[in-house]
Design brief:
Length: 429
C-alpha cells in the first residue's frame, strides 16, 4: 500500500506534510529548512543545527535534553545538515512511540512537535546570542569531522574529486562548511544568521505515523509557528558551466597502502527529467550492483580493484566511479573503466544486465517503504527538484525503460575529471 502525504499550508513558505499510516508504531517528525548552498553563508548554516541540539532555554544542556527524551519512552532526536544537489538543508528529527501502543496516554506526538518548537525557536542563549561555549565547541567538532575524512581514503578521494571537478560551483562546497571559516564563526554572527534562516527558508515539516492530519496541523500551529519574511527559494542545481566535460587528470600523493581512482562524469539528465528512470538504470548497469559492469570487469575478471562501483547524484546530474587499486594498475584500471562506459553508449547491454538491474532498483524502492526516514527523504528530494516521484510511479517508469533509453542517456555522459590518490613513486618524498 502506497503511503500518501497530505500537504497542509501552515504559513508562507511553510508546509506540513502528513503521511497518516498504520504501518508504523512510531511517529516520525522531521523539520527541514532549505537553503541555497552558497559560499558566503554555508559554513554558518552548517553550524546551526549542531548548536541547536546542545540545549534550549528550558533544557539548557545535552544532559537535560536526554533526560527529557528518555521520559518520553526513549524518544529519539537528531540534528544534522544535508546536501541535495546545490541545496543545503538543516534537518531536525524526533521519533516517538505512538500512544496507542503504550500503557498510558502521554500525548507523545504533540510533545514531539512541542519539543521541536523549543529546539528551533527557544535555543539556549547568553547575552541575547548563542552560548559562546556551544558555538566554539560545535564549530571545532565540524572542523575535526571534515579533516578526519583524510583517514578514510575512498571518502577522501570523492571529496577531492568534487572539489576539483566543481571548483567555482556550489556543488563543490562541503556541506559541513569550510575548515578555515569555521575558526571564525562567532556567537553574534551565527545568531544573526540563524534568525535570517528562520525567517527566509522554505520549511517542510514531515510527520509519518498513525496520526490524524487535522490534529497534527492544530498542534503545529500551537507549538511551531515560525517567523516569516521574504522566502528565498533554493535552486536545486545550476547548469553545467561552459567547458564542463573537458577531461582533466588530478593526481595526489599520500602514504597510502592502495591507490584510489575516482572519476567524475557529467550527464545531460537530472532528477526532474523524463529520462531520469533511464539514468537510474544506466548507473545500476554501470556500477550500482554486484552484477554491474564495473564489479564484474574491473574487480572480478581483471582482479584490478579491491572495490569498484558507481554512484548517482541525480539532482546535479553527476555519476561518479570509485575503485581501490594497486598504484601500478592505474592505466589498466582506467582503461577498463573507460571501456565499460563506452560499452553502455554503444548499446553493449545484455538482457540479463537489464533485468537484474531493473529488479535491483525496484527491490530497493520497495524496501524503502519500510523506513519512515527513506519515505521522507524521497519526498524531500522531489520537493527540492519540483518533481515529486511517488514510488509506484517510479517503479512503473523503471519497468518501461528499454535498452535504447539507456543508450540515449549514455550518449549524454561525459568524463570531466579523473582523480588519482596514490603513494609517492619509488625514490620520491
Amino acid at each position: 500500500m502506497q503511503i500518501q502525504f497530505e500537504p497542509i499550508a501552515i504559513d508562507r513558505g511553510y508546509t506540513l506534510w502528513v503521511a497518516a499510516t498504520e504501518k508504523f508504531k512510531t511517529t516520525t517528525v522531521k523539520l527541514v529548512l532549505r537553503r541555497n548552498l552558497r559560499a558566503d553563508s554555508y559554513t554558518y548554516t552548517a553550524v546551526i543545527p549542531f548548536v541547536l541540539r546542545r540545549g534550549t532555554q528550558a533544557l539548557p544542556t545535552v544532559r537535560d535534553m536526554a533526560r527529557y527524551l528518555e521520559n518520553l519512552y526513549g524518544a529519539g532526536f537528531n540534528a544534522d545538515v544535508s546536501k541535495v544537489g546545490e541545496t543545503q538543508n538543516i534537518e531536525l528529527l524526533v521519533e516517538v512511540a505512538h500512544d496507542r501502543f503504550l500503557p498510558e496516554q502521554l500525548g507523545l506526538s504533540e510533545k514531539a512537535l512541542a519539543f521541536l518548537g523549543e529546539v528551533l525557536l527557544r535555543p539556549a542563549t547568553e547575552d541575547g546570542v548563542f552560548r559562546r561555549e556551544y558555538v566554539a565547541q560545535e564549530a571545532e567538532n565540524l572542523r575535526r569531522r571534515i579533516l578526519s575524512v583524510i583517514n578514510q581514503k575512498p571518502q577522501y578521494a570523492m571529496k577531492r574529486l568534487r572539489e576539483e571537478m566543481f571548483a567555482g560551483e556550489p556543488f563543490g562546497l562541503e556541506k559541513y562548511g569550510d575548515v578555515e571559516e569555521l575558526r571564525r564563526v562567532t556567537p553574534d554572527g551565527l545568531y544573526e544568521h540563524y534568525q535570517h534562516v528562520l525567517a527566509t527558508s522554505p520549511v517542510d515539516l514531515f510527520v509519518v505515523g498513525p496520526v490524524e492530519p487535522a490534529q497534527v496541523a492544530a498542534w503545529v500551529r500551537q507549538h511551531l509557528t515560525l517567523p516569516r519574511g521574504d522566502i528565498e527559494t533554493p535552486v536545486a542545481a545550476t547548469p553545467h558551466p561552459e567547458g564542463a566535460g573537458e577531461e582533466r587528470v588530478v593526481t595526489e600523493e599520500q602514504q597510502v597502502q592502495q591507490g584510489v581512482l575516482a572519476l567524475g562524469y557529467r550527464t545531460a539528465t537530472r532528477y526532474p527529467d523524463a529520462d531520469y528512470p533511464a539514468l537510474l538504470m544506466y548507473n545500476g548497469i554501470l556500477g550500482g550492483f554486484p552484477h554491474s559492469k564495473l564489479f564484474i570487469n574491473v574487480r572480478e575478471k581483471a582482479s584490478l580493484a579491491y572495490f569498484a562501483s558507481s554512484q548517482l547524484e541525480a539532482t546535479k546530474g553527476v555519476v561518479t566511479v570509485t575503485a581501490g587499486i594497486a598504484v601500478d594498475k592505474y592505466e589498466r584500471a582506467l582503461g577498463i573503466i573507460r571501456d565499460q562506459v563506452d560499452a553502455l553508449a554503444a548499446g553493449d547491454i545484455s538482457e540479463e544486465e537489464l533485468e537484474n538491474t531493473r529488479k535491483g532498483l525496484i527491490n530497493g524502492m520497495l524496501s524503502g517503504r519500510d523506513s519512515p526516514g527513506r519515505i521522507i527523504g524521497g519526498r524531500l528530494v522531489g520537493l527540492i527538484n519540483n518533481r515529486v516521484r511517488p514510488v509506484p510511479e517510479l517503479i512503473d517508469d523503471v519497468k518501461r525503460v528499454t535498452r535504447e533509453d539507456v543508450v540515449r542517456v549514455a550518449e549524454g555522459v561525459r568524463l570531466d575529471t579523473v582523480y588519482f590518490l596514490r603513494a609517492p613513486a619509488a625514490g620520491g618524498q
